[in-house]
Design goal:
Elements lengths: L12 E4 L9 H28 L6 H18 L2 H9 L4 E3 H34 L4 H4 L2 H27 L7 E2 L6 H5 L7 H32 L3 H34 L6 H26 L1 H12 L8
Parallel strand pairs: 1-3
Antiparallel strand pairs: 1-2
């Protein structure tokens, strides 16, 4: 006789087991995470405020950078506060509704990162390869459409994934991660998750296809830029940080997606935790730092804002 199934409506709380082996040093971890999160928020808010405040930074490249920082704050807000609470709590649990909200925030952030990096690559392609047409193509309306695309498409994809996830009947309530993740919840299903898997892989292939398109566009950019010293300087200043961000978020998210589905449990819990969190640790702090330090205009305005010096802005 088949045991009674635990219906999804009766699963009110999930248990997060990712911290079980690291609780001995939880106060040390909490101190580090709290300081890191404050630094992350400070760096992103600084870049956002600087771009909004100065009219000379109201250009497509800086607007997209601002969007990247806003998205970083959005995504990390779905993880860090709950994670810091779990470091101090004895029971690492999250409500069913809270779990779905966390999934939506974290993974729409990850996809929005890809979308924003994609439109930034398009912007750089126009600026370097088609400079005479740049301002006629990258108008304010076009920038607005790009921003809407960056947010609307990821939110729609993750919303569909969550709807499919909420229809599953679950037989367990333990999630073997530090946070809620689509596949970690889907694995708890009593029945087939084929529909979820198919749509999930469509989303994965679509957004990693974004990365392929970006790398292809950069092949054209490199060919264009190596022909002149000015082109090489422009590429190093605006395109290299973009490539670093793209490589980092692609590798981190690809590892998280593939390991959650095919990874071995023989890997130490600490290693698994670090790799699962890499896309929530590095990109949100790397983006404002590499752009803020590398882009002369942004760097000068930040220095002027904090050190009260009259620093000229180079065009």
């Amino acid at each position: 006789m088949q045991p009674p199934l635990e219906n999804v409506s009766s699963v009110l709380v999930f248990t997060l087991s990712g911290l079980n082996e690291t609780m001995e040093n939880r106060f040390l971890f909490f101190s580090f995470i709290a300081l890191f999160y404050l630094l992350l928020v400070f760096c992103n808010v600084t870049v956002i405020f600087t771009i909004i405040r100065h009219e000379k930074l109201h250009e497509p490249m800086y607007v997209f950078l601002c969007n990247l920082c806003v998205n970083g704050l959005f995504g990390t807000s779905g993880f860090y506060p709950k994670f810091m609470y779990d470091l101090l709590a004895h029971d690492h649990v999250i409500s069913y509704t809270g779990c779905l909200i966390q999934i939506f925030v974290i993974y729409s952030y990850a996809l929005c990162d890809f979308s924003t990096l994609t439109v930034m690559a398009y912007d750089r392609y126009l600026a370097i390869c088609r400079p005479l047409e740049y301002h006629s193509i990258m108008t304010n309306q076009m920038v607005l459409k790009c921003i809407i695309f960056c947010w609307l498409a990821p939110c729609f994809c993750i919303a569909v994934l969550i709807i499919l996830l909420s229809r599953l009947t679950l037989c367990a309530s333990t999630i073997e991660k530090l946070y809620c993740e689509v596949w970690a919840v889907a694995k708890l299903s009593c029945f087939s998750t084929t529909v979820n898997n198919v749509f999930g892989y469509i989303v994965i292939l679509t957004y990693f296809g974004h990365a392929v398109l970006i790398f292809c566009s950069y092949i054209h950019l490199i060919r264009k830029c190596i022909k002149s010293i000015e082109g090489r300087h422009k590429f190093m200043q605006t395109c290299v940080p973009h490539l670093l961000s793209l490589v980092n978020v692609t590798v981190a998210l690809l590892f998280d997606v593939l390991y959650s589905r095919y990874g071995s449990k023989n890997v130490p819990q600490g290693v698994r935790n670090f790799m699962a969190l890499e896309f929530l640790f590095v990109p949100p702090i790397l983006n404002p730092l590499i752009y803020g330090l590398n882009l002369t205009t942004v760097r000068q305005q930040v220095m002027q804002m904090f050190f009260k010096k009259q620093v000229g802005i180079s065009e």
